[in-house]
C-alpha cells in the first residue's frame, strides 16, 4: 500500500459516520421526529442545591411531596409555630366560639411579651380581627398570646390544644410549649409552662402539612397573609410591615423587589438566634399552588437569604414539573367494568371513576398506576341503583416519580347506567333458573 493510501484510509470511517448521521437527521426531519430525538436526550430536571439544613416542597392541591431534604428533622421553628395559632383561632371563629368583632381586654401575659410586638398595654381593648391581623402580618407576640388566651383560657392550655391538633393533622415531629414559638427563657417567668416539657420544635414536613391544612381549611387566611402592611391603630405613625418579603406585590417595592416572587401570598416567617432563618411560603401560578419550607438558613434577617433559598424551591417546582392525568374521570377500570347487582332488572351495573387522578410529575417522566383493589359499597349491590350513584371505590398504586416512594390513592366508582328493581316475576324466574343451573352443575361435577 502506498503512502497516499495509508494517509487517506483512516478518513473513510469518520466520513461514513458523518454521512450516516446526516441521513438519520434527514430521515427524522422527514417524518417529524427530530423533536422526539431531542426530547429523548433531555435529562430529567436536577433538584435544587440549597443552603439550608432542612427543606421541603409540596403540591398544595394534593399534598404530594416534590422535594425533601432532612424534612423530618425536628428543629426550632421560631414564629413559624404561629401558623398553628392562626389555624386554631380561625377554627374557633368558624365553630362559633369566637367572633371576629368581639372586643377583648389585653392581659398581663400579652403585655409582657418581647420580640416582635405591637406594644399592647394591659387593659387595652381590641377586636379579635385586629389582633389576628397583627399576628398574621407582623407576627406580633403580644397579639398572639392574647388570642391564645381567648381560645383556651391560658397560653399553657392553648399549647396543649396545639399539640393535640398536631397529632390530629398527622404532624409527627412537632412539639409546642407556647403560642409564639419563643424559647422558654424568653417567656415571662410567671407564664412559663409547668405541665409541658422541652422547647417548641417542628419539622419542615410538619410545617408544610400545617400550611397545606391552612390553605385547604381556611383559604380566607391568604387574604390576610398577603397584606403588605396594615395600620393597627389610627394614631400609629407607621403601619405594620409584613415580614414576608417574597410577596408577589413587592415587585413594586424598590427595597424588596429582589425578593418578590410572582404568585406568593403567604404564609409565615420565623427567626431566633437558636432557630436561624425559617420560612413557610406558598405561591400560585397557572392554577398550581405550591408550599415550600426552608429551616435553619444562616445569615442575618436583612440578607433575606431564606427567601432566595425558597425561590430555588419554587423555581424547581414550577419549571420542572407538569400536571399529568394518570386516570381519567368516567373511565372504566380494566377487569372491573361491572359490579354484581341483586334484585334488579339486570344482574350487573357498569361502573366508572367519579373523578380523575392528576399528579405533578417531572417533565418527561412516566407514571403507570396499577389497580390494587376494587371495593363495592356492598357485595353484591342491591337495586334500584340510579345513574351517578356511588357504588364502590378503586385504589390505585403508583411510584411517585420525584421521591420514588410507593403511593396509593382511592377514588370513588359510580354507576354509569341505571338499574331499576326487577319485578317479582322476573326475580322468581331468575331464581328458578339459577337453581336448575346449579343443580345441573352439581350433577356434572359428580362425573
Automatic annotation (TrEMBL):
Domain Peptidase S11 D-Ala-D-Ala carboxypeptidase A C-terminal stretches: 321-421
This protein's UniProt keywords: Carboxypeptidase, Cell shape, Cell wall biogenesis/degradation, Hydrolase, Peptidoglycan synthesis, Protease, Signal
Signal peptide: 1-39
Annotated InterPro entries: Beta-lactam/transpept-like, Peniciliin-bd_prot_C_sf, Peptidase_S11, Peptidase_S11_C, Peptidase_S11_C_sf, Peptidase_S11_N
GO molecular function: serine-type D-Ala-D-Ala carboxypeptidase activity
E.C. numbers: 3.4.16.4
Catalytic function, reaction form: Preferential cleavage: (Ac)2-L-Lys-D-Ala-|-D-Ala. Also transpeptidation of peptidyl-alanyl moieties that are N-acyl substituents of D-alanine
Enzyme class: hydrolase
Keyword match GTP-binding: no
Annotated positions binding substrate: 268
Single GO BP term: cell wall organization
Taxonomy, superkingdom: Bacteria
Active site per the UniProt annotation: 79, 82, 139
Family from the record: Belongs to the peptidase S11 family.
Function in brief: Removes C-terminal D-alanyl residues from sugar-peptide cell wall precursors.
Protein name, as recorded: serine-type D-Ala-D-Ala carboxypeptidase
